[in-house]
Give the backbone structure.
Amino acid sequence: MRAFVSENHTDLLSDLDAWLRIPGISAQPEHHEAVHRSAAWLADAFGRTGFPTVEIWPTAGLPSVYAEWPAEDSSEQTPTVLVYGHHDVQPVDPIELWNTDPFEPTVDGPVLRARGASDDKGQLLFHLLGLRAHLAATNRSSPAVNLKFLIEGEEESGSPNFERLLAERADRLNSDVVVITDTGMIAEDIPSAVTGMRGLVVATVNFHGPDLDLHSGSFGGAVPNPATAIARLAAALHDEAGRVQIPGYYDDVLELRADEKQLIAQVPFDEAEFLKTSKSRALSGEVGFSTLERLGARPTAEVNGIGGGYQGDGGKTIVPSDAFVKLSFRLVADQHPAKIRAAVETFVAVHKPDGISHTIEWEGEGVSPCVVGIDTPAFTALSRAISTAFDADVVLPVREGGSGPEAAIAQAIGAPLVFLGVGLPDDQIHAPNEKVTLSMLYKGAEAAGHLWQELATLGKLGLKG
Amino acid sequence: MRAFVSENHTDLLSDLDAWLRIPGISAQPEHHEAVHRSAAWLADAFGRTGFPTVEIWPTAGLPSVYAEWPAEDSSEQTPTVLVYGHHDVQPVDPIELWNTDPFEPTVDGPVLRARGASDDKGQLLFHLLGLRAHLAATNRSSPAVNLKFLIEGEEESGSPNFERLLAERADRLNSDVVVITDTGMIAEDIPSAVTGMRGLVVATVNFHGPDLDLHSGSFGGAVPNPATAIARLAAALHDEAGRVQIPGYYDDVLELRADEKQLIAQVPFDEAEFLKTSKSRALSGEVGFSTLERLGARPTAEVNGIGGGYQGDGGKTIVPSDAFVKLSFRLVADQHPAKIRAAVETFVAVHKPDGISHTIEWEGEGVSPCVVGIDTPAFTALSRAISTAFDADVVLPVREGGSGPEAAIAQAIGAPLVFLGVGLPDDQIHAPNEKVTLSMLYKGAEAAGHLWQELATLGKLGLKG
């Protein structure tokens, strides 16, 4: 496997160079034509690799690419694997902070710089090399598992049409395990795998007091002030220990087991580096949990914005008419966005003083959290594949703080997830000067090759545990 | 007195008509020429009335008018009285809401409409008629007290140069009692007098967290959020009973005596009307006090504005870098602006979480509160003068919620204040369609005439109590 990857890695590099030149920025309409070209390029690449079935799936927005390669010797025990990734990329602003042209891929020693190099084009292309290595190493003409790839074209703009696509194409997507490939590892020499993503619900709460701004001399202290009320609402979200005070908020939270806490504690965390990256002066958060636990395994309530009344220079002695707070709640397994929305609605209604009217605007239904059981057969298979590729025994679990469509995929497919991603924390995805470390792509290719073999050995029954 | 006022009130009307045509808006530079004309017109009117000394006092901004008329038979016991008012007027925006031209005085039955009709030109001109009535009724060729008038030209733009003028002219302004003439009464048939104005300090508190807006997925729940912190600060200002929680805040508050509370309770207050005027849906404030007590006799802490983080439509999942709250504190006797500023600084420092840096910007030094003792000889003299003019025994005390230069005058002169004002709550001062009720001006003229006699009878010693 390693020899094949090593002998053929220039194929990966030349493919990557070609694909990265296509500026497929899904968030910017002027680049939508490029997103279509990116889909076409990827479809061609799947075809060249040997996939017998390659389709471009249109949506109400930008297209996904679907490719399928069944095991020729497929039996009832041969697992079907769905790989998820995305072919669109982030915008490049602020362009002046780039040291090279974001769409002119530049190899600089051990890294390759370009928009999308790590997120997610590099990570998808290691799969093509990995699959070829898998065929070569096992002397097969088709994969040892039934392989499906679903590569989205709107992940970087919030996946607005993805759940509908999953529902529409449910009959084609049926699988036994889902492999997510747009995440990363702790460090080049510390193989690891993401084992959870947080869910998310987002709301704006508006408080309305008097129908006009009042003179605070004539009315202050005698009528309810919506800015004070919104501040009291925001302040009531947490207790002194940083624990969210919304009744029922933690009811469905899967508490970390002792062995999970122990594994997370082994994940290297450099406090000084974290403060430097976040340009913050102190750590804070829920008492009783480490920073990595707070970020990945604990739900939060965050004030993203607050406003109301006079916003100009100096002072203006008014009782404001209106105030708002913008809140986001990061959720962890097994919290439900709908239940959390209901709990927040009740909390706001209880904390709204007499004489203040209110509205709550939700941003959609919310995103569910997901978690990978570290004792499941799928995770064990992933761990073995990664350990073999990285020549290291340990695969540390990493709970990601962010939120994505992963839980929706797991729910739609009804299959367990694992995360095989080889990005690094300094890849600067979503920022200027994105790069990918080439050795990570080669190891990723090996790991993918091993993973198909591990899953085939496990079989369908073994996957169910 | 009444006969003289009645026979000569057309003089007041024609003077008022002439003066109101001068648009002396101090807040608008394009009207500053008119403020100078207004000062000249008033100086001429003082001269015509018989004042032997009339001066226009320049300042770094717009001029005040000073007039002096000593009692010819002045003795050591003859009190010197300083009358304060202002000759500038408010802007007229929104002009489209006026039913008549604001500088085209229009008599409409019992009222006269124009900008400045009540605040403060009508109230100043009743003094000229009242003084002539006083001379006629007492058959004197000079007032029974040493009269001084100081009429400011920048009251409607915050009196920026007034304290300096008071200091510079201290030798000329020396007096035994100060009569403030730009306030009002409860109703046409309920004679009353203002007995207090609140003080004021105004601040903007800025909290700074991370040096940039952070992604709430990657950092939320692990670093301090300045928007949450500013909300917690604003929320900490009051307890559930609406009492300000800044340590020491109430230390110097002169609590209302039982007899004062009883008198305030007699002041008519229409809750439905107050809610309608304030376009509010509920009363609120410090538990244990009536609305009139909350507005006039209790200090407040008000959030005038709050802001930070994302302000646009929808949501944005960030931990903001900055947040602010704009606060004003209305003070009552004997609170000191400097002590309150220091208490607020300590409060903010204590409530600022680790990892948040802060600044506090104060709007100047603040305004002191003032209060008139209702058992002082000056207030007794005022009460008798008003009762005689209005044919009614009671002069109810009214604590104004607003803040002005009155305390600064009292402090600079070192003399007690009384408030003789005949504005009505529906005069719409500072708003479109300002009016004055003419019968109130005539009663005001009578009350002023009686007041000079009352104060002369009291004498300097009597004034000291």
Summary: Chain A touches chain B through 81 residues (CB under 8 Å). The two ends of chain A are 28 Å apart (CA to CA). Chain A has 14 helices and 18 strands.
